[in-house]
Specification:
alpha/beta; Metallo-beta-lactamase, Chain A; 6-stranded mixed β-sheet; 7 helices; about 25% strand
């Protein structure tokens, strides 16, 4: 594959229909990063699978790409991460925002994980702070702290592309909810304004899309589209109005269907809980803690 202009990196995207999740592979023709990979999970049988992650593996191998980093935008509550699986398959390190330590400490208590679980971020290879940079061949990934949905939310800026996690959705869907641990509508408003201060042509790659029936799934939008057309923030909506509407909307939302299994895996860097003495792995259900 020929060298790609680092100011306009190539992006290949994979849609996980069951959870509405986009996984992105950003690359310069030689080196790549995988962003927000998904581990398949059937909630009824509690069975995991790797078909979705294997499709990503097949692409990077077919294109003869070397994966420099596996990047998470935050500890997801709506799908299980395949970061650990890809790390083992590719040897690539995993990076996430430093706020994961706060998330880990909270859910360590919720799930009763005990002293065997270290809430120090050590399950990840790199904890990112605002402005940190990672090298991906000729590309540079810059961490932009965008809390509000969660306290560990990051946007990864790579050339003219920004991978925004759940901070914004497609313009006809709106913005992230703020009723999770560390969520704050005022913080989210400020974070969105940081994203919208980027050049208007910046490509914004979504982590999720939940389109209405008449629209196809959309993997990306732009700063201009979000600033002008987003139904919750576009057209210069003020902070007070946004906070009021966001909080009212959040009060009506159910607990995400996969929150309990997802967080037990995702705070471990996309790895399943350790096996018990009988060789089997178990997820825990904290009764009457959520909702």
């Amino acid at each position: 594959m020929s060298q790609i202009d680092p100011s306009h990196p190539a992006v290949e995207s994979f849609f996980h229909r069951e959870t509405g999740t986009w996984t992105h592979v950003v690359h310069d023709g030689r080196m790549a990063a995988v962003i927000d990979p998904v581990l398949d999970y059937d909630a009824a049988s509690a069975r995991t699978g790797t078909a979705s992650a294997d499709a990503v593996l097949a692409f990077v191998r077919d294109q003869d790409l070397s994966v420099a980093w596996i990047l998470e935008t935050h500890a997801h509550a709506d799908h299980l991460s395949a970061a650990g699986y890809l790390h083992d398959a590719l040897g690539a390190p995993i990076a996430i925002g430093r706020g994961i330590v706060t998330v880990q400490a909270h859910f360590k208590e919720v799930f009763g994980l005990g002293d065997d679980f270290a809430a120090d971020g050590s399950q990840f290879d790199r904890l990112l702070d605002e402005g940190d940079e990672l090298t991906i061949g000729s590309l540079t990934a810059r961490a932009l702290a965008t809390p509000g949905h969660t306290c560990d939310s990051l946007t990864h800026r790579i050339g003219d592309a920004a991978f925004i996690g759940d901070t914004l959705f497609a313009p006809d869907i709106g913005t992230a909810r703020c009723d999770f641990l560390g969520g704050d509508a005022a913080q989210l408003y400020a974070s969105i304004r940081r994203i919208l201060a980027l050049p208007e042509s910046t490509r914004l790659f979504l982590c999720h899309d939940y389109p209405p029936p008449a629209r196809a799934h959309q993997r990306e939008t732009s700063v201009w589209c979000e600033a002008n057309e987003n139904l919750q923030i576009g057209g210069g909506v003020g902070e007070g109005e946004f906070i009021s509407k966001r909080r009212a909307r959040d009060a009506t939302l159910p607990v995400p269907r996969l929150l309990l299994p997802a967080l037990q895996v995702n705070i471990r860097g996309g790895r399943l809980p350790p096996a018990d003495a009988n060789g089997h792995r178990y997820l825990r259900l904290p009764l009457n803690r959520l909702g």
